Amino acid sequence: MPRLVNNPNLEELPDFASEDFDAVRARWDNPGEAVQALTDSWQLQHTKRVQQWEQQILEDQQAAEEVERQRLENEERVRAEEEAAAEAEKREAEKKRPKAPDFDATLPPPDRIISRPSLFARNKLESYEYADLYYFTQEGRDEATDGHQVSAEEAFGLAKTEHGLALRPLAAFRPSRKVIPDSQLTWRQMTMAKTSLLSEMEKAQWPEHHVEALVLFFYGIENSDLRMKPYGEAALIKYQARVRKEWHDSMKHGPGFNISIMNKSILRECVDEVLDAAKLDSINKVK
């Protein structure tokens, strides 16, 4: 059925008795019956048009209400999705945000504050990598402390982690320009540095048997009979420098060796190198 454009309630009953309908009435034998028949027919059609109009209005209203309902549903869905996304983003940000450290309100500061090695050295240990003993000497720790006092802000750079790229302080990857090779440390520097090294390894959560092996390694060096001989301590310093570096390198390619076992062949080489250097120095002095 064609859609009505005009409101039938505004229509008026035609005057079927007027001259305009003479031709129609002429078809009837009784003009009065013609007027009545035309009137009844118009009234019937008019009633149908009014009913169609009302039904049309009702359907339009229902369609408009359905459109509005869908619009509101879409708005609610979009709002719910935006809130869910915002909440998920907030939770993700909370996961990445560092937790605020806590403190004991009844605990006073320690009687002695021990300086720590540089961020570079601590980063090496956290990555289970080799770090020069210099960073753990008093000189190395003092340098790290002074460095933090000079600069209040840290520069950051991208670094690879197990979770992908992350921002890390550049100081974590910047070695000291003052570093002294292990083989050139004094006996006092080596023995003091190894204590700090072992402590930092425990803080970095190295496996217990690694730390124990290194404890026995330094114990064997410090209690070696070779210390009683000329150039003995110099040879032992060379030995610890060479073997500890090799220990770290060996663990990169598979199970490493037991560093706590003293290798007499390497130790003999170190003794010979020290004695040869001493002889050469004596010859040069005579010249």
Can you describe this structure?
The protein is mainly α. The chain has 8 helices and 2 strands. It folds into 2 domains: 8-95; 119-286, no CATH class. Helices cover 58% and strands 4% of the residues. Strands 1-2 form a two-stranded antiparallel ribbon. A hairpin with a 2-residue loop joins strand 1 (156-161) and strand 2 (164-169). The longest helix has 66 residues, at 31-96. The termini are far apart.
Give a topology summary.
Elements (H helix, E strand, L loop, with lengths): L21 H4 L5 H66 L22 H8 L11 H13 L5 E6 L2 E6 L17 H17 L4 H15 L9 H21 L11 H23 L1
Antiparallel strand pairs: 1-2
Helix pairs in contact: 5-6, 7-8
Helices, by number, come to 8
Which range best describes the helical content: under 10%, 10-25%, 25-40%, 40-55%, 55-70% or over 70%? 55-70%
Order of SSEs: HHHHEEHHHH
Shape category: rod-shaped
As a whole number of angstroms, the C-alpha radius of gyration is: 48 Å
Strand content: under 5%
Spatial strand sequence of the major β-sheet: 1-2
The total count of strands amounts to 2
Give the rounded overall mean pLDDT.
87
Number of domains: 2
Q: CA-to-CA gap between the ends?
A: 126 Å
What does the main sheet amount to?
A: 2 strands, antiparallel
Kindly name the structural category: mainly alpha
Low-confidence stretches: 149-153
Index terms:
2 strands; 287 residues; 58% helix; 8 helices; 4% strand; 2 domains; mainly alpha; two-stranded antiparallel sheet
